[in-house]
Every structure is written in structure tokens, then in C-alpha cells.
Amino acid sequence: MKEISYGIFLDKSSGKIFTKNLVPGQRVYGESLIKIGKDEYREWVPIRSKLAAAIKKGLKQVPLSKGMKVLYLGSATGTTPSHISDIVGETGIIYSVEFSERMMREFLKLCKQRKNLIPILADARKPSSYEDLIEKVDVVYCDIAQPDETEIAIRNCNMFLDHGEYIMLAVKSRSIDVTKSPDEVYKSEIEKLKSHGVKVMDWKKLDPYEKDHAFILGRF
User: Fold this and answer.
1) Cα distance between the two ends of the chain
2) Which of 69, 109, 144, 195 has its CA 20 to 30 A from that of 167?
3) Whole-angstrom Cα distance, residue 165 to residue 14?
4) What's the pTM?
5) Could you tell me if 219 and 165 are in contact, meaning their C-beta atoms sit under 8 angstroms apart?
6) Domain assignment present for 3
7) pLDDT of 101-155, one tens digit each?
8) How many domains does the chain divide into?
């Protein structure tokens, strides 16, 4: 195993990426587990996680490390949050906002085993509704399939992110505008971020792992 970014490991023989399992023996979504010495690693499957897909596509930086605080918008059942949980470790926190009660019921099962996942049932469009529950964070991660997802992400950045910190945005082009090509949508969302003072550091199309998706890394 070669560590390619903090807490993210590449198995050169298979080309697969892994995180070190914070809860040994636990599978979150049926992923493979590998034991090496005293450590256990969870495969991070790129067709199940947009961040994993971006890493596989060569995202030049993953601004996550031990002890970081992350605001995750759109946690769903917790596939990607679980890997971020592995990376930031027991001293880190992932404030996980999800609107769907059905998704949240599933996510709560994961939170019982991973104490650094903080579930918040709320509408990410209204960050003031959970303002009292969250401190300033190091990263805002947004994966919400809505036409105004970039604006939602910016709204949360303005409230919870200090300048100089990071935004990670998963863009589903077909949820934003089906009349435009994916490339046109990606360009438009990047320009929106720049207009709000975000320095776009890198971005990747996620095909073939996620069709018509892109992943954007910026600094607020």
C-alpha cells in the first residue's frame, strides 16, 4: 500500500484505492476489506463515491487530514462520509446534513458506530436552521443533486468556512440544466464559484465512473 494523500492508499497491483478502517470489521456498503499487519483497509469504490472517482481521475489535492472538521451537505446513507471519517479520524468531525428522513434513518445506523459523524436532518438551503449546531469548519463538501447546488454550497461556505479554507463540489450536470451540454454546465458552475471569490484549484470530469458528473476543488 502506498499513501498517495493523507489517509488515502493505493494498491499498486490492483490500482484500487483504500482508507484505513476506523471501525475494523465494519463494511459500510459491501466494500472489500484487506488486512495488512495490524491495520485493516476499506476499498474506496469510485462508482459509489464521487470523491473516489475524482481521486482516480487524478485530482491533484485532497484537503483532508487527521482532526479536520468537515461540513458535508447531502450525506445520504454515508458512503463517502464514512471514508472521510476514516481519514479525519477520532479527533475529526463530519457534520453531516441530509434532507431525506429515509436516508437519515439509514445514516443513523452508521453514526452509532462512527462517533465522528454528526447527523443533522435539515435543508442545506437554510444553513441558519442548523447554525447553532456547527462550528467553523475546514472543508465544505457538497453533493446535492439540485439546480442551485452551487449557490447552496456558497451559502454554507459564507456561514461556516473561514477564508483560505476549502470547498469540494460534486456537480451533476443533468440536475442543473438538461438543455445544456455537461461541459457548458461545468464551465458555468466554475464561473459562479469564481464570482463569489472562490479560487478554483482543480476540477475533473468523473466519466466513466459517474456519467455527466464533475468534481470541483476550490479555496474560499
Assistant:
1) 33
2) 109
3) 33
4) 0.96
5) yes
6) no
7) 999 999 999 999 999 999 999 999 999 999 999 999 999 999 998 999 999 999 9
8) 1
Sign of CA dihedral 141, 206, 197, 122: negative
DSSP 98: E
Q: Rounded to whole angstroms, how far apart are CA atoms 154 and 181?
A: 23
Residue 164: is its pLDDT beyond 90? Answer: no
Show the cell assigned to 205: 470530469
Q: With pLDDT > 70 as the criterion, what percentage of the chain qualifies?
A: 100
Backbone dihedral angles phi then psi of residue 130, each to the nearest 5 degrees: -125, 20
CA 73 – CA 99 distance, rounded (Å): 9
- Residue at grid coordinates 441530509: 98
As a whole number of angstroms, the distance between CA 4 and CA 8 comes to 6
Domain presence at residue 62? yes
Which residues, listed in sequence order, are joined to residue 42 by a DSSP beta bridge?
A: 19, 33
Within-domain flag for 12:
no
